[in-house]
Write a structure and sequence with these properties.
two-stranded antiparallel sheet; 814 residues; five-stranded mixed beta sheet
Length: 814
């Protein structure tokens, strides 16, 4: 009978597993469709266009790659950026995103699907968001099972933090880097659970793709060594841990050094030293375990003291060499951005160019709720669930969330214009952009988002398991009670009582006849069975009252529904608007502010191909990609002195600024101004950063000269230095004509201090419809021969006052 039941149970379990796998496969397909479709609001509401600033450079590089090929891409010297220095593109970019999009475009054209390069770039991020959701499923499945994996995948597909950098049109490095990050972590955990060299090799290749895609790869190469060291300290060393880590350091570092932008930094910078130190430690620990298995305990103690003493000497020598190498660097071998992560005040003290970038500013608490929503409250429950039981995989997830929470609290990205409301003033013909909320678009919170989704998925999966098992237990008991019924006769009850009495008497007689030894053995057996029953009771799943389970299940579903509603709102309203095309709503309808593309189109059609355009570095990538004109600085920010020169020019009086721009062969100056329509991300609001960056290189530019009693003002109380600087003049030139002479700035909410003035060295050539972008041309230098003749005439008049002039020649230059 037992054999027959086993044979019947086996096909049922295999069928159940097969149906579960098929169901999970179709659910993952739906999750991928959800992740892709929720990021299409920007295309549906606006148009298929590249967003933000950095994506335009990536789009321009992808165009060059698809047109000229991979070899010309590696050797491309771009003379349209950072004039007159230029830039070597192949050696200064992370090529992962460009190569990925270019490969997709090539494959599509090979299959006779004629999509443009721009279309491929627009939809690359939504496609890889589906891949990231599937990678999250694989990673969470290795930690807590398939149920938690599916839940985590759904959460990641809709998390606002990830949507902010992966909407259609957001063609930035993070579009593919988050998938590479999660997939690398999955292969590391898979290798740690299986001890397979095959997965270890795949892990190194995935790490190589991450290095090609984003500079955030240093997070991986520091987090994994921290986890390995944690496992060693807590006594969890195994051969699987060695296989998971050692090939990653060796093969991964060699592959990372092949990326031109990384090169020897993979072994020379302080960001990578932790991995090498842990690499040495794990070999020493492995050697100690090997020797312990060979020698006797006494001999092992002698060998351990010898090895420890020699190891200490070697470690001291290695540390001394590292300290000498690190001490020779002014920043101790760390990059400026890495030091800003370790010390949040470092950039504000020493490197204003890093501090000026909005994504390097610390976040606020509301930003966590905006970008994570209910996940912020589920993460602690997920951490608790990972401790029961604690495994190598679950400890890695805990370490991942702890480190990512710290780094996300140090660095974020804040776009100022995400959700706008418009109204009409009685004296202005333009709709006004008024910020309702300033939501934060996260860069390093992207690293936190997968960890939060994984732990929240584990917490929700465990909670659903408890609630559903409690309801099942109640339903099964209710059905058993109904099957038993209550029609039992009294005679049967009496017969059962009699048989029970006779059985008890027989057992008492047998116990008297048994020897003492058998009684002791039976007591020991009874104690063991009682202990087993107690352990089985502790292993039994938690069963809650049915009312509590139903109510808690309802609250959980309600919480998930609130998360879905918030995520859809964030995708549709907060993160779908492209920064290059702005919209606002008013009682008269929808208004579109397309001033940026209007200005770039004017530059493209009304200026010479070799003309140089100066602007603040925020608009460099867009000017080069859309206007096809040479710029002085752009968003790469690799040369602080060059950016400081532009900042100094903007902070100087008109004549001094003209001389600086003329020395750089600049012909046009572009300024972004939002005082008419209320666009708060204009150059006047960024002006103090221009002063700080310029003053960091040129000491005659001092920030207090532009402040009145420590306050930044543009009204009548502004300082003379502020009112006479080039940025003020180019922004507010003819501004009083927009509102009948009042000169009211709708961003700063005050009247300007200097209303009527003329430009002597610059002339206005174009201003967009809503006055958001203004373009000025440098006036040509006055003829020096003419000035010399004037001086000679004045000297001759003063010298010959007593003499009479007979004949005066007419100046031919008049």
């Amino acid at each position: 009978m037992a054999a027959s039941t086993d044979t019947t149970a086996a096909p049922s379990t295999t069928l159940r597993h097969a149906s579960g796998n098929i169901l999970a496969f179709f659910i993952l397909l739906l999750i991928g469709v959800l992740a892709f479709s929720i990021r299409l609001f920007s295309v549906i509401k606006y148009e298929s266009v590249i967003h933000e600033f950095d994506p335009y450079f990536n789009y321009r590089v992808t165009q060059f790659l698809t047109k000229n090929g991979i070899y010309d891409f590696w050797n491309w010297f771009d003379d349209r950026t950072w004039y007159p220095l230029g830039r070597v593109i192949g050696g200064t970019v992370y090529p992962g995103l460009t190569l990925t999009a270019g490969t997709i475009w090539k494959v599509l054209h090979f299959l006779n699907i004629p999509l443009s390069v721009e279309t491929v770039c627009v939809f690359t991020a939504p496609v890889f968001s589906a891949f990231a959701a599937w990678a999250t499923y694989l990673l969470t499945k290795e930690v807590k099972g398939a149920g938690a994996g599916l839940t985590a995948a759904v959460l990641l597909a809709m998390v606002p933090s990830y949507i902010s950098r992966s909407v259609a049109g957001s063609y930035d490095n993070e579009a593919v880097a988050i998938f590479a990050l999660i997939f690398t972590f999955y292969l590391y955990i898979k290798t740690l659970n299986t001890g397979s060299l095959f997965y270890a090799t795949l892990n190194s290749i995935a790490y190589f793709y991450m290095v090609c895609s984003w500079g955030g790869y240093t997070f991986i190469i520091n987090l994994i060594p921290m986890h390995v060291l944690l496992c060693i300290v807590t006594g969890r060393y195994s051969s699987r841990l060695y296989i998971a880590y050692a090939p990653l350091v060796v093969l991964g570092t060699l592959l990372a050094a092949l990326v031109p932008v990384v090169g020897f930094n993979a072994v020379m910078t302080s960001e990578h030293f932790a991995s090498f130190l842990v690499f040495i430690i794990i070999h020493l620990v492995g050697l100690a375990y090997y020797i312990k298995g060979i020698l006797s305990p006494k001999m092992f103690k002698v060998a351990a003291t010898l090895v420890v003493s020699i190891g200490m000497v070697v470690c001291c020598g290695v540390v001394a060499v590292l300290v000498a190498v690190v001490a020779s660097s002014p920043t101790k071998g760390w990059s400026g951005r890495s030091l800003s992560l370790l010390d949040p005040t470092y950039a504000s003290k020493y490197i204003p160019i890093i501090a000026s970038v909005s994504e390097h500013q610390p976040p606020t608490w509301p930003s966590y709720f905006m970008d994570l929503n209910v996940l912020a409250f589920l993460v602690p429950a997920g951490i608790i669930a990972c401790f029961s039981p604690l495994s190598d995989a679950s400890s890695f997830v805990i370490l991942y969330i702890v480190t990512s929470v710290y780094f996300s609290s140090v660095m974020v990205s804040i776009p100022l214009i995400l959700h706008k409301k418009s109204s009409y003033f009685s004296h202005t013909p333009f709709p006004i952009l008024l910020p309702l909320t300033i939501t934060q678009q996260v860069r390093l919170m992207l690293v936190l988002a997968p960890a939060a989704c994984i732990l929240s998925g584990i917490a929700l999966s465990e909670a659903f398991a408890v609630f559903t098992t409690s309801i099942k237990f109640y339903v099964s008991n209710l059905s058993e009670n109904l099957q038993v019924g209550d029609g039992v006769s009294a005679s049967n009850i009496s017969m059962e009582n009699k048989t029970n009495d006779t059985d008890k008497k027989e057992e008492l007689l047998k116990e008297r006849e048994r020897p003492k030894k058998t009684k002791k053995k039976e007591k020991a057996i009874i104690e063991e069975t009682s202990k087993k029953s107690q352990t089985e009771k502790t292993k039994r799943p938690l069963v809650l009252p049915v009312d509590t389970s139903v109510f808690a299940l309802f609250l959980t579903v309600l919480l998930a529904a609130f998360y879905v509603i918030h995520s859809v709102w964030a995708a549709a309203e907060a993160y779908s608007a492209p920064s290059i095309v702005l919209t606002s709503h008013s009682p008269e309808g929808l208004h579109v502010f397309d001033d940026f593309r209007e200005a770039y189109a004017w530059l493209s059609h009304n200026t010479e191909v070799d003309d140089r355009v100066a602007s603040w570095w925020d608009y460099g990538y867009q000017t080069t990609a859309m206007a096809n004109r040479t710029v002085i600085v752009d968003n790469n920010t690799w040369n602080n002195t060059h950016i400081a020169t532009v900042g100094t020019a903007m902070s100087s009086p008109e004549k001094a600024a003209w001389e600086i721009f003329n020395s750089l062969d600049v012909k046009y100056v572009l300024v972004v101004f939002g005082g008419v329509v209320g666009y708060s991300s204009d150059d006047i609001n960024k002006f103090l950063w221009m002063v700080r960056i310029g003053g960091g290189v040129f000491p005659h530019i001092k920030e207090p000269d532009y402040l009145r009693d420590g306050q930044y003002r543009i009204d009548s109380q502004a300082t003379p230095t502020m009112l006479n600087c080039l940025m003020y003049k180019l922004s507010y030139y003819r501004f009083v004509e927009t509102d009948g002479g009042r000169g009211y700035d709708r961003v700063r909410r005050t009247e300007i201090g200097k209303k009527h003035f003329k430009l002597t060295h610059f002339e206005e050539v174009f201003t967009t419809h809503h006055w958001m972008v203004r373009i000025y041309k440098l006036k040509p230098q006055r003829n020096r021969i003419r000035s010399k003749t004037k001086k000679s005439k004045s000297k001759s008049k003063s010298a010959s006052t007593t003499r009479t002039r007979t004949v005066t020649k007419k100046n031919p230059w008049h």
